[in-house]
Amino acid sequence: MSVAYSPERAEELAQNLAEVRTRMEETLRSKGGAAQEARLVAVSKYKPASDILAAYEKAGQRHFGENYVQELIEKSEQLPVDIQWHFIGTLQSNKCKSIAAIPNLYVVETIDSGKKASTLDKACAAVGRPHPLRIFLQVNTSGEESKGGMLPDEALQVAQHVISSCPQLQLAGLMTIGSPNPDLENGENPDFKTLNECRDKINIPDLELSMVSPVNLLVE
């Protein structure tokens, strides 16, 4: 099935992405960082494949986030193979083999237990992925029951399990869903601070941090 988009929609998406990138760069500069230190992942759940293709072709966007396995499978089959897909939804154990079979799956950001990591590891072996699949551990930094993820105190143990017992996985980062209205009284986002502390305990060089949050809070 061919995917087509209108020039007007493509222009709208390109402009929106340009505005977001500008905000990211401004926030990073204010913190003494560089644009290369942050990656923009465009969350594309419920959006048609045509929107993704427009953002890909007209705005140079390569990283997209999806929440549902079946939707991700369908889109990945229709769209360019060099799109880098991020799975950011709750991963059910019975969907691990399906998602592991997506060739250009860049990362699964929502591993919330050692058991889930082991299930995905076995799925990757079963489908014959040529390289270890990147994963992020999802950490519940806010303590809100409505948000998924392991407790911060569990992150080190799960990280050690992945490293020692999951050869088909590459521990690449930590992810959290930030509070919508964080307390910034001390100048630092508390969710990001907690996530950074988890990274320090795990002590893996270049371990990435990912936070689902408004842009200015995400790059703090």
From TrEMBL:
Translocase among keywords: no
Chain segments annotated as coiled-coil in the UniProt record: none
The Alanine racemase N-terminal domain, residue ranges: 35-208
Pfam families in the cross-refs: Ala_racemase_N (PF01168)
InterPro entries assigned to the protein according to its UniProt record, in alphabetical order: Ala_racemase_N, PLP-binding_barrel, PyrdxlP_homeostasis
Keywords, comma-separated and alphabetical: Pyridoxal phosphate
Family classification: Belongs to the pyridoxal phosphate-binding protein YggS/PROSC family.
Protein name: Alanine racemase N-terminal domain-containing protein
Organism: Modicella reniformis
